[in-house]
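In practice, a research group might receive sequence data for several interacting partners and want a quick structural hypothesis before committing to experiments. The following worked case mirrors that situation: the sequences arrive first, and a predicted assembly follows.
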Amino acid sequence: MTTRRVQTSSFSYLEVIKVVSIFIIDDDENLHQVYKTLLFMNGFQVIASAYDGMEAVDTYSKLNPKPDIILMDYRMPMKDGVTATQEIRQMNPVCKIIFLSADETARESAMLAGASSFLIKPVRFAHLLQAINTIANSP
Amino acid sequence: MSPVPGNPSIGKKQRIQGDRFDRLVEASGALIVGVDPQGNIRLFNKRCEEVTGYSREEVLGKSVFTLFIPLDVRPEVQKRFQNAVAGKLPTMSPIVPWITKDGTRRLMRWNNTFILDEQGKVKELYAIGIDITDRKKAEARYKSLFDSVPVGIFRTTPEGTILDANSTLVHMLGFSNREDLLKRNAADFYVNPDARKQWNEFVQRADIIRGFEAQFRRQDNEIIWVQLNARAIRNNKNQVECYEGTLEDITERKQAEIEVLTARQRAEFLVDLMAHDLNNINQGIMLSLELLQNDPQLPRSLEEHVRSSLAQVERSAELIGNVKRFQSLDTEPRRLGKRDLSPPFFAAVDAVERAFPQKQLVLNTNISDEACWVMADGFLTELFFNLLHNTMKMDRKETVEIDALMHHIPDDKFVKIEIKDRGPGVPDTDKKRIFTRFHDKQNGVRGSGIGLTLVQRIIHRYGGQIWVENRVTDDHTKGANFVVLLPRGD
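A structural hypothesis for the assembly, expressed as tokens:
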């Protein structure tokens, strides 16, 4: 992982960050767009996107290099986020997955499946960035 | 009792036997009456005197029919008597009513013995009777109770033969008479044959079974829900001889239960829809607004609108969260335990500070890290969060000052907590209604949240109380004082 100085945004505490690669998994296309824009503005690199759990597992298996962080939705067609998390963790037990769900009851199963963090939607972008930085910098 | 007219040549031994017979007749608890072939009374014991009110002297030599047999049955009784004396059938009926001296009709059960002469003709009739009037009345009362109770009563064999059923059951199962019902097998009524098997297994195993619910098909094919309560009656070999029990039509209750369940499922669906789909939409709006907010091209005149829109989205998410918590108060079982009040209180303070990043909270409190035990459950943080959040929301100032004071009153079963603010306060007219918005659309206070209603419901769940006072006596504009009583846990 490399470190570089990025253009300063209004989130001043993020003046120096690592270039962190991110894989976005969510069935909401609109959310993909805003995630991508905001993450790009803050110096992150979105390297892949998936719109359901099955596509997520398939895409992850083909990604090389693997992303530093996965943003994972819970309720998705074909395969839910918990199952997708379990299958991705089987491929790579050290991958870091941040769960984002509007359903708080999914917290326990998400954490048991191997999520590193669980955020309740709607989440302010500052909190999301904080979680990404914390998880990205964790061993 | 007058001696039985005797023969002068009778021996001493016979006289002794005669005396013994007389004493026995007199001491008997049964009515003993003797008549000649014409029906004239020859013997009338003490019990007869007690029951009829006549003395022996009044009746001896008189016709038993004229004196005692009611007019409505007299011809029939007299005819039967005459037939019996003549040795013809039919014989005498064992139950014959008598009229007492005061005109009361009594019902007697008789055992008749005919004494024959050497030619085989009837010489005398001795009848031993029991007054069964009270027993018959009791039986009639029992029968009336049996038939008129609002639940079905039955007795069946384990194989399903219906031995007895009351009128309520007859009508409940759609029959017009008992006989038709008794021709059917109990198993025929079960919509699901497995339910009958299950019933048999239960009652064989447990001897007594209560609250067994099943669907029955009535005679007219209508399906009803019934609740069965029964016990197994065993013989001396410990085998089940029959089942006795009650059967209640619970169709209306079951329909109500189904309606409640359907309504609850619908509510869960709607809450889920809100919690998930609307919050996903909220997420998109929130991030888009943040994108706008951080765009250097955004005109200064729009900055406040974007900030306000973001706050609205957060309020929407908070409302959705509260509706979900409100629902979970109904569905989660109430399991109260001893809980330290301080950690949930300070967790709520942290959460409220995070919810209002643009405001500053100044908290004056005597709630410390020292444990303060109350009887509560996992909703304690929600309680304090919503109480403090309401205060932060209502006070428009950038710096919000709140006093949170805990009072231990010796020997009181409650811990008292006061949350005092310096916001706009609550007018007297709204002091009670402020907690009832969700249930009382007519009288509730206008607003966009259900936070205080949720607070009240949590407190009631704990058996506590909440009310609002003025922080400064007689001046509600100086702020509110929310007083909470929670049951002590120490």
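Before designing any experiment, note the following. Residues 1-17 of chain A have pLDDT under 50 and may be disordered. The radius of gyration of chain A is 14 Å.
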